[in-house]
Amino acid sequence: MPHDLHPIALRDELIELGNLFRAYQERPEPDLEQLAELHSRKAKAFRTWAEVTGETELRLDAERAEQAAAAALLQHQQRTGQSPVGEGEVTNRLLPGLTQWEHARTVLAHVAEHTPLPGPEARLMAVMLTLRSALTGTGNLVGQDVRGLPLTEPEELIGRLVDSGWLSIPGTAEDLLASRPESPTPITIPSLMPDDDGQGPFDFGRKTRPKLSGWAQRVVGDKKLRKKKTGAATRLLALALAVRTTTDGRLGPEGEGVDVEVLTSWCAVEPDELESLVEQLTVADWLEEAAVTDGRLTGRLAERVLQVSCPLP
């Protein structure tokens, strides 16, 4: 930078930016929001400098700084559970950031491989119980937790899970369904209990488990899904799609859609049943522009449910 650069205000701005960038590099932890602001100021200063000197390279530097600012801001929004909506608006997500989004996918993948009984109702029940007892293999449950799920015969399903050895409860299924918040039923899922080395199937912390459980409950218990009386398979599809979007809600990596076989396997339904589930989610204002073509489901999540989405990296 020329020492005699005019106007003086531009020279002072460039000097200050140099000092700020050096100070930023010495930070123990990154602050992507601050970095985006610094790159934006740099872009503005370099564009002004280019106008003063007429140098093309300075204009290119300004463009590169603008791109760096946009990238840093997007990373900041992703890490804090936000994403651009338009005109400066952002979506605040229920689960904040890349790590928790990946934990949500990990839990769903685990349940897909370890559900002890066939059918969507057993799969949905396994999701909710797994999240209640993910770290220690133990948790608490009350009757309303089960009755709030779209299950045709909850008492019978609980009995079958117990008989399979996947679930253990101190009394009967009837006792569990009658339990209230002041006296919850303790449950145990042996397969989730840590081994002799203290390792279980999940590596997230104690504070994360209730956040993940609350997220799944928010998806499964969505008001419009309940109002439309959607079944377990439809709620499972809602969960599957919530963890398979871009930051702006388009389905699949890069918005290219999700493989139908993956979705039907997760929802525990036959392929010809998927379109009906998609239609139910569309009617419930969960999906928009949905279409099943060439073995893929494309479309996007409705804006009202973007907050429960967990975008793909």
Radius of gyration, in Å, reads: 25 Å
Kindly state the number of beta strands.
7
First-to-last CA distance: 39 Å
Mean pLDDT: 90
Beta-strand level of the residues, as a percent range?
A: 5-15%
The 3D shape can be described as elongated
* Biggest sheet strand line-up: 5-7-6
What order do the helices and strands follow? HHHEEHHEHHHEHHHEHHEE
Describe the structure.
There is one protein chain. By secondary structure, the protein is mainly alpha-helical. It is built from 13 helices and seven strands. The chain has a three-stranded antiparallel sheet with strand order 5-7-6. α4 (98-114) crosses α5, α5 (120-132) crosses α11 and α11 (232-242) crosses α12 (260-267).
Protein traits:
313 residues; mainly alpha; 3-stranded antiparallel sheet; 52% helix
What's this, in brief?
This protein is mainly alpha-helical and 313 residues long. The chain contains 13 helices and 7 strands.
Layout of helices and strands, plus pairs?
Elements: H1 8-25, H2 32-53, H3 56-79, E1 82-86, E2 89-92, H4 98-114, H5 120-132, E3 138-141, H6 143-147, H7 154-163, H8 173-178, E4 185-188, H9 208-220, H10 223-227, H11 232-242, E5 258-259, H12 260-267, H13 274-283, E6 287-293, E7 296-301
Antiparallel strand pairs: 1-2, 3-4, 5-7, 6-7
Helix pairs in contact: 1-2, 2-3, 4-5, 5-9, 5-11, 11-12, 11-13
